[in-house]
Specification:
The complex is a heterotetramer. Chain B is α+β, with helices and mostly antiparallel strands. Helix content of chain B is 17%, strand content 28%. Classes of the chains: A alpha+beta, B alpha+beta, C alpha+beta, D alpha/beta.
Chain lengths: 188, 109, 1004, 414
Amino acid sequence: MSEPISALNHASYEGIAKVEECGLQGMITLRGDLSDKVLAKAVKDATGQKVPGQREALVAGDTGVCWMSTDELLVLVPYAEVEAKLAAMTNALSGTHALAVNVSDARAVFRISGASAREVMGKLAPVDLSVDAFQPDQIRRSRLAQVAGAFWMDDAETLRVVCFRSVADYVFNLLKVAAQPGSEVGVY
Amino acid sequence: MLILNCPYCGVDAEETELAAGGEAHLKRYGPGSSDDEFHDYLFMRENPKGVHFERWRHANGCGKWFHAARCTQTLEVFGTYTAQTSEPPQDIKDAIAAKRPGWTWRGFS
Amino acid sequence: MSTRLAKQGRLINRSKQVTFTFNGTSMQGYEGDTLASALLANDQMMMGRSFKYHRPRGVVASGAEEPNALVGLGQGNRFEPNQRTTTTELFNGLTAISQNHWPNLEFDIGAVNSAFARFLPGGFYYKMFIHPKPFWKHVYEPFIRQSAGLGKAPDKDSRDADTYEHFYAFTDVLVIGGGVAGLQAAKAAASSGAKVMLIEQTAYWGGRAPVDGGTIDGNPVDKFVDQLVAELEAMENVTMRNRCMGAGVYDHGYVLGYERLTDHTPGVQGPRHRLWRIRAKQVVTATGAIERPLSFAGNDVPGVMLASAMRDYVVNWGVTSGERVIVATNNDDAYRTAIILKQAGVDVLRVVDARDTAGPLAEEARQLGIRVDPGKAIAKVKGGKRVKKVAICNQEGIGGAREEVECDAVAMSGGWSPVVHMWSHCGGKLTWDEANAHFRPDPERPPLGANGEGFVVAAGSANGPLALGDVLADAQTAGEAAANAAGFKPKTADAPKGETTTEAPMEPVWLMPSNAEISLRMKSWLDFQNDVKVSDVQLAAREGYESVEHTKRYTTLGMATDQGKLSNINGLAILADALDAEIPKVGTTTFRPPYTPISLASIGGEARGEVFQPIRQTPMHDWHNKNGADWEPVGHWRRTYAYVRPGESVHDAVNREVKNTRENLGLLDASTLGKLIVKGPDAGKFLDMMYTNMMSTLKVGKCRYGLMCSENGFLIDDGVVARIDEDTWLCHTTTGGAERIHGHMEEWLQTEWWDWKVYVANVTEQYAQVAVVGPNARKVLEKLGGMDVSKEALPFMEWRDGKIGDFDCRAYRISFSGELSYEIAVPASQGRAFWDALIAAGQEFGVMPYGTECLHILRAEKGFIMIGDETDGTVIPQDLGLHWALSKKKEDYLGKRAHSRTHMADPERWKLVGLETVDGSVIPDGAYAVGEGVNANGQRNMIGRVTSTYYSANLDRGIAMGLIKHGPDRMGEIVEFPGTDGKTYKAKIVDPIFYDKDGEKQNV
Amino acid sequence: MKHYSAFAVAREALRYHTGWERAWRSPEPKKKYDVIIVGAGGHGLATAYYLGKNYGIQNVAVIEKGWLGGGNTGRNTTIIRSNYLQDPSAAIYEKARSLYEDLSQELNYNIMFSPRGVMMLAQTQHEIRGYQRTAHANALQGVKTEWITPERVKELVPIINIDGPRYPVLGALWQERGGTARHDAVAWGYARACSAMGMDIIQQCEVKGVRSENGRVVGVDTTKGAIDCEKLGIVVAGHSGQLAEMAGFRLPLEAIALQALVSEPIKPCMDVVVMANTVHGYMSQSDKGEMVIGGGTDGFNNFTQRGSFHHIEETVRALVETFPMISRLKMLRQWGGIVDMTGDRSPILSKTPLQGCFINGGWGTGGFKAIPGSGWGMAQLMATGHSPLTEAFTLDRFKEGRFIDESVAAGVAH
C-alpha cells in the first residue's frame, strides 16, 4: 500500500496565530443510540473515553470522541489504527442498529494556536468564542465563512478545526486571511 | 437575522447556520388521495400575519430538523421543538397563548 | 475668511504638522484635524457643488450629518468618492478633490442649472422630456446622468488595494455612542457585571458635551470624560472601540459595527475596515442629537453653517469660520456659539433671535457686548461662493422692511433633533415632543426582540433630553434598564450631577420669516445636497403628493448621501403646514440602515479573490491542473472539461478523448459523484420510497441504476445503487447531488418516517473514484494485478471489494459510456497515487484521461440521459421513456401521486427521442422544433426542443437528443429547428441509441 | 387634466409654479362602482387604466390601504426585460415591455423608460446552455434577444471583470431593448391618467371584508364604509392571502422578504443592466448615479419589510467580485419588500371561486417589469372573461401539475 497523503500535507502559516494542517487523523462517524450500553462499550474500547454529553469533546492528542448530534459521534483514533478499530467496533455493534464508517480521508484537520487563536476563529464562525462561553472539552459545529466545519479547543490557546477534504484549500486560505499580520482584534 | 435555539444540540443558532424548511405539520398525501388533498398538501400554505409554525434544519450544525413557533409580523419566537411530532407540544401552545390570547393556526389553538 | 486661531483646539496636536493637498494645492493642518477643519483653517470654505443646480457648497456641519463637504479621497486603487470631510481624519499625504463640477470647483459649467432653477422645480423631469420619444434615451437622459451623479467613478480597472474582515461579537449590553451619555450608560450597565460593549464612531470619547461646556460633579466636562473613560477601560467586563460606528440595528439583537481601522493611516499592515456582527441582548442608543438648520433664503450660501458646528471648529480644532458673524436662532443654545466666537476674538455682529424672549445665555452675550435682536429673522443671505451680507427683517410677516448687514459667515440654529436611526431601524416607533419640536423614541413602542420584549433603550439626547444634567440622569437610567432587561442586577446609583446655564424654551421656526413670500421660499433650502427648497415641498403637496413618502420621492428630499439628517424634520414641517395637518399626523419616512454609508468591501469582508467562494477539489486536482485541464465549475466543484494538449483547441481535445476512450483506454476522475451509505433494518423500505424503482430486492454484491423524483413528480437525481450487505446500501448521486440528496434523505427520515430504523452517512469525500473505460480497461487493471476483474468474477452491474495493485479498493462494474468500464474507489488519501499508477500502467494501452464533455458525448452516443440536460426541473421519467424504472409493484414512492395529475398524464407531453441532422451538422444547443402557425399571443407554435446536442467524433456527425411532441410515434419524420444563426436545421426523429445498439461492447 | 410639457413648465415658472393642479383627485368613495380594484400599486392602477382605455369601463374605484405606489412598486430595482423562457411568461412580459416603450407619451407623464439593455451573464456551461435555449425560444416568441460573447460583454460594460478567478464570464444573453424606468413615476403616471378618466383613487382606505350573494361578489366593506361593485379585482401582492380569505377562498402563496440596496451616487460608469445569477446579484446605475443592487430572498414567511443581512452580504461580495471597481463605493441605503411567492414562482392572474372576483398576484420578485402587460391582460380578463395573456396563469394549474417554471434556464426573475 502506498503512502497516504492528507489534503494539504502539513501546510502551515504564521500570522497573528499559527495555522497548521495536522496531517492524517483517523476518524470514524458513529451513528446510533448514544444511551446504548453496547455502543458505549465500543466507544470505550476504541478510545478509552465515555460517551460524551451534548457538545462535549473528549480528546487527547489523536484519540478521543466528540458529540456531533443526538445520534452521532465522531470517534478519533490514530490513522494507522482506524481500520482495525472500525472492524472491532462494527463487530461489537453487529447486534444493534448502528452505523460506523471510516471518514478519515473525507476530512481535513487544522490546528490554530497562539494568543489570538480564538480571534482568528471569531472572524469566520458566528460563534461566541469568549473564554466564558467556549472552553476546552466543548465542540461546536458551525460555519467557517461559507463552508461547514467543527472545532474544539485542545487548550486555552489551541483550536482544532475539522472540515471536508475537498475544501481544505479554501479553509486554509481563509485561516491565512483571518490570521494576517496586523489584524489582531483585541477582545479575547 | 433570526436566532433560533436548536432543541437537539442546544445551540442558539443564528440564521446563517440554519436552513428554512417551510410550513410545519403538513400531512402527507400519497397515492389514493384526492386531487384537492394532494394540491393542498403540496401548495396550500397558511401564510399568516402572526403566529406561524415552521420547519428549520440546523444545516451548519448538528444537521437536525426542528420546528419553530414564530410571529411573522414581529419575528418573536415562542419556542422551538422536535420535528418528530405531528402537532405542537402543549408548552409551546401555552407559551403562545400567553402572548397571543385566542390565537389559532389551522386546527390548533 | 476662515482661519486658524493662535490657541484653542482641544483635539489637535499643534506640534505635529500634517501636509495634504486639495484640488492639487498643498495645504497644512495638524494631527487631530478633520479634513474639514483643516480646509477651513486654510480659508477653503467652498468644498463642493450641489447635486441638481451645481450651486457652490461650503461645509455646514462638523460631523456625520454633513451634506455638502464631500470629496474624492485618495488615488488609483485607493480612490474613494463621496467621502465626508467632516469625518475624515487628516493624515500626511492625504489627497482630496472636490466633486460634481466641470471644469473646476470655482468655475462650473453645470452651474447654468442654477440660473434656470426657476424652471427646474421639484419633479420637473416628470413633466418634461416626454417628446420626441427617442430623445429621452439619447439626449435628455445622458445629460441628466452626466450632471447628476456627484462623485467621480473609480477607474474601471481599479482593484481595491486593501483587505477587509468580519468579526462576530456577543455581548449582554451594547452601547452605541461614546458621548457622556454613552459612557455613563455603559458604566451603569457594567456595574451589574453584565458584559458591555461600547462603540463610538469618532476617534475620541465624550461627544460634544466638552464643547457645550458646563460642569459635572463640579468638574469641567473634559476631566469627567477622561476619568470615566479610564474607569471603563479598567473594567474587565467592558469592551470599548472608537472609530467604530453603529451602522444598523437588525432583528433579534443583531447590530452592525463599522470599524475604520486604517483609513487614517493608509498603508499600515492589516485590514482597512472590520465589519462587526454583534449580537446583543440589549442595545443602548446614545447617539446624541443633530442641530437643525433654519429655512431662510440663501441659507445654502457657503459660510452659512450650523451654530453648533461653528462652535465645534473653534473649540475642537481652533478654527474660526469667519471674521464677522451673524447668529440666527430660535433657541438659547446658539448663544453659546455667539459667546465662544466672541471670546475667540471673532466679531459677532448680532444674534437674530426669532423669539421675543431669550434666557440667561442671551444676557451673558449682551454682557460681552453682543447685540441681540429679538423677534427678528434673516430675510435673505446674499453672496455667491461666500456670504457677503445678510438682510434682516421681522420674523412675523413676509420679509419686508429689511436691514442689510455685511458679514462673511452665518451661524444658524433651528433646535435639535435626537438621532433616532438606531432606535427606528428595527421597528422602534417615535413620538412628537411639542416642547422641543422634535421626534423622540416612544418608550412604549420599542423594537421587539426574539422574546417579544423591547431590546433597544435610548439614552441621553438621543432620547430627548438636551440639558447636560438631564442627559446624564437619563443615561444612568437607560444603562440600568438595559442591564436589567439583559438579566443582570445593576447597582442603582445616582447619576453624576451635570450643571449648565438654564435655557428658555425654544420656539419652532420652520420658515424665516414666518410668511416668507414665494421669491424667498424658492431660495430657502431644505436639502442642501439635492437642492430641495421650501417651495418644492409646497409644490409637491399642492399637486397631491401628500404622503411624506410621495413628497420625498417626488422632490428627492432626504434622499441624498446624508439621508436627510439635516433636512427631514424641516421638510416634514413645511409639508404638514402645506397640508394644514399636525406634524406627527404626517409622520416620518422610514429610517433604513446604514446610519452613514459603509464600504461595500467591508460588507463582503474576507470573501474576495481566492476566497471569494470555496472551490472543491478532488485528490487528483493538482494532476489535472498540471496536465492541461480546462476547468468547468460544477456547483462548488471544479471538474476537468477536457485535457488540452499544447497546440490543441478544446474542441480537438474533446474529439481526441472521445475516440481514444472508445478505441483504447480512458480515465475519468469520478470522485465528485456522491456516495451515501444507507443502513438499517428499514433501509430497503426507505430506499423503495426514495427511488422510483425497487431497491429492496437488489441482491448483495449487485448494482442497480435508480431514479429519484421529488414529491412533485419531477426527476431530481439518478445514480447507481449497490447493495453492500443485508442491511446496507451505497447510493451514488450526481456531482453536487451528494449534499442535496443526503439532506433530502435526512429530511424524510427526520420529519416524516422518524420511526424507521435507518441511518445515512455521506462518504463522498472518503473515496477517490476513477472510471477506467474502454476496450483496454480490463488489461490495465490486470497489469496492476490484484483482484480478479474477469467477466466471470466481476460481471456487469456487480461490485467487489479487493485490491488492485497494492491499493485497497471497491470495484464497480458499471458503465455510463457503453464501453467495458470499471469504477474504482480507493481511499482519498491514495487517490493521487492510484491515478498515477493507472496512467503509468496504461501507457502501453493508449491511456488518456478524459473530461466531462467527453463523458457527455459518450453517454449521448448511447442515449443515456443526463440530469440537468434531459431534465430541467419540469421533466418527469415518463417524458424520457423511463417507464421501466417506475415500479408497478410499489404502491407508493415519492412522485408517484404527482404523476397521476392530468397534465402529467397528458399524451401531448413532449417525449424523448434521438435526433439525426439530415446533413450531419450539429443542431445548436437549446434549439426548439417548430410546428405550424402561431398561438393566441402571436408566438410561433413549438413542438419540441433539443436537450443534448454534440458532434460525435466516433460517428463523425451531429447527434442529439430531444423532447418532441408525440416523438416516439413519429420515428423517421423530419422536424425543423430554426437556429438563432438564421439557419434552419432539419433533423430526423430516430432511436436515441446511436452507438452499439445491442450493448455488446460493455458486456465483454 | 393639464398637459405636461416643457412649455407648460416654463409657463408655470413665470407664476412661480402656483398654477399646477393636483396630479390626481382625492375623492370620497361613491356608493357603487362597476369595478373595484383593491390595491393602488402599479398592477392595480394599470388594470384600472386599461379597463377604462380598452373597454370603456370608467366607473372604477381603486382602493388603497396606504398610499398609491407605496408597496413593491416603489421598492424594486426597476428592471424591465422580457427574455423569459416559457411562452406564457415571454408573452406577458414582452407585452409589458412594448407598452413601456410608449408609456411616457401615452400617459403624458415621464416614466423615464430607458431601454439601456439588459444582460444576463453566463458563468457556467449549464448557464450557457440555459441562455442559448432562452435565445432560441425568444426568437420564436417575438422577443428580441441575442447571445453575445465575453468580448462584447466587456465592450458594453467596461467595468466588468470578465476573467475573474472564480467564475469567468463565458458570454451573456442580451436584450437590447430591456432597461429600467422610474418606478414611482409608473404608479403616479397611471394614477394621474385614471383620475383624469374620472376613476376614483381612494387612499388611506382599508378593505375589511368582501361581501357576496349566492356565490357572486357584490361589494367590499372598508374603513370608509361599504362600497358596492359588479366586479372586484384583488391586486395586493404580499397581502393577497388576507384579501382572499375575506373573499372566502385560499391562495397557494407565501409572503417573504426581498431586499435591495443602493450605493452613493457616482458619475455614469455603467449604462446597461447586468444580472449575474450564478453568484446571485444584479446591478444597474440609476439616473441619479446610484448603483442599484438586488439579490436573494429569505426562506421564511415575513411581513416586516426587513430582510436578513446575510443576503445583502452574499449579493455585495458577488458584485464586488464581478465589478471590482465598486469595492470602495459605499452602501447608502438598504431596504426590504414583501413579495408573494407561488409554487412555481410564476404569477396568478385568474378568476376565483367567487364569481366576479379576480386575483392578480404572486409576482414574487418580478412584478415591476410586468405592470403594463399585467394591467392589460387583467383588464381584458375582467372585462371579457378571457385573455390569452393570462390564460396560462390560472389558479388551477397547480392542481393539474401544469407549472410555469422559469428557473429552468437559470433565468431567475427580478
